[in-house]
Amino acid sequence: DCEDYILFKPNEENINLNTSLIIKTKSLLYLTNQEIYLNLRSKKPISRKFNNLNLKKNWYEKRSSQVEKLYREYKFIYNLPNKLKRYFPKLSNDGIKKYSSNEISYLIEYIPGQDLASLVLADKLNEKIKSNFLIFIYSWLADVEEYKTEEKRIEKFLIKKCYDRFNQLKRNSIATDLEATCRLSSLIKPDQLLKKIVNAILKYKNSINFYPSGYFHGDLCLSNIIYNEDNFYLIDPRGYDKNNPKVNILYELAKLRHSIISKYDCININDHKIELSKDKFSKIVCDDNKSYGFLKSSYYEILKSFSIDDEIIKIIEASLFFSMLPLHSENTRKILGFYITAARLMNDF
């Protein structure tokens, strides 16, 4: 029935797509920019600016100028135990292809599904997806735990990453704007927030290092989980670090938390409101929906199953949002969203 469909044509001149987007919906969706349009479209994964994705028959060619990063990612999937490989699309037997000294690629199976972030943002989780998601995440974490490594000192990694990104931020002009915003509101200053995060990590380092490290994904956000025909697949893992899988399960869960509880994807597409205040805590407001509600309950069920305290996860999550700041210098509103989220996570510490 054609009456059930609304045809959207973006009005931005810089959107050059061969086909229009048709969405079946009972409510009006306002497409404010190209990024939101492409996220809703979700027919082809949106790659970062240093990556290219080209569909070749039943394979995606993932091509990148970040040679070391892409190689670590490929090596991670290639060397996974067979029990864990089933969570990822298959790699081609062609291996790594070198285009030049500064560009390589590899082929990975094309999964014609949707990323979970797009489904949640559009509130499209049905009962089947809801029940399967919890089983999938729990199974992934439990299976990875069977292959533990000896890496224990995750607090050093977290602290170094925060300091490196803070120094990177200071070299960017956006740092001046951020500090000015902090002065005009009740926001903690960046150097003070960094100190607060580092002190919290050091205070709880024994608890953090107690949990296992191993072949965890390392970037388990909703946009890296693909749903297709009742199955879920993981894409774009963090990859090897110095030839070893060293991701801690708490880091894995912090990535999941920042997508589900703190709604990273809403902030990332600028679908959020910023409320600045001199007299009370500034905050970020994102629209809620039933899909987020389910994932929230699923997240806490997973923590309970693995006997993990959410307060520890929040510390690591705050470090994640803080370390994102210099990576999004093109978007002041997004940076402020990430910054306020990190600050609010650290309020209790």
Describe, in plain words, how this protein is organized in 3D.
With 349 residues, the protein is an alpha+beta fold. 46% of the residues lie in helices and 15% in strands. The protein is built from 14 helices and 14 strands. The chain has helices at 34-41, 67-78, 82-85, 116-121, 127-145, 154-170, 174-184, 190-203, 205-210, 249-260, 264-268, 290-305, 310-324, 332-345, and strands at residues 5-8, 21-24, 51-56, 59-64, 97-100, 103-109, 114-115, 148-149, 213-214, 225-228, 231-234, 247-248, 273-275, 283-285. The strands form 5 sheets. It has a 4-stranded antiparallel beta sheet, covered by helices on one side. The longest helix has 19 residues, at 127-145.
